[in-house]
């Protein structure tokens, strides 16, 4: 039981050894330990600062990307609307051109019909004149002078015009 009871000499040498160990540790180990802890603390602070800085930069980039996407969306909507307006304008122009072309073709057809009608009437008049001259020559039995032919032709043309 001697080993378990406190002895003043053992306590003294234990305290002296502990104090010497503390002094030796303070002189040789405590500085490097504290320096290591400070370095570690500085690295952690730096890493936290860098992480916060990187997070702020990422948020800035995210906001910038959102802004760019928003502008791109606005621009695409504007381009789409402009394209629709241009297409509608082009469609209207094409329809108007087709309408005016159809009107021109219709007018040209009417003119051709009128010309054909006038040509047909002229042909009928000429044919009627020729028949009238032949009939007159047979009735009269002789050839008419040019003046007589003109008078006779005008007479028959007037009669023919009145009947049509």
Write the topology of this structure:
Elements: H1 8-140, H2 146-163
Tell me about this structure:
By secondary structure, the protein is mainly alpha-helical. It has one domain (8-163). The protein is 92% helix and 0% strand. The chain contains two helices and no strands. Helix 1 packs across helix 2. The longest helix is centred in the middle third of the chain and has 133 residues, at 8-140. It is rod-shaped and about 185 Å long. The N and C termini lie far apart (162 Å). The model has no long low-confidence stretch (mean pLDDT 87).
Concise structural overview:
Helices cover 92% and strands 0% of the residues. The chain is mainly α. The chain is rod-shaped, with a radius of gyration of 61 Å.
Total of DSSP H or I helical runs spanning 4+ residues? 2
How far apart the termini lie comes to 162 Å
Q: Supply the number of structural domains.
A: 1
* Coarse morphology: rod-shaped
Poorly predicted ranges (pLDDT <50, ≥5 residues)? none
Question: How many whole angstroms does the radius of gyration measure?
Answer: 61 Å
Overall structural class, as computed from helix and strand content, comes to mainly alpha
Assign a percent range to the helix content.
Answer: over 70%
Largest β-sheet summary: none
Number of strands: 0
The succession of helices and strands, N to C, reads HH
Mean pLDDT: 87
β-sheet strand percentage: under 5%
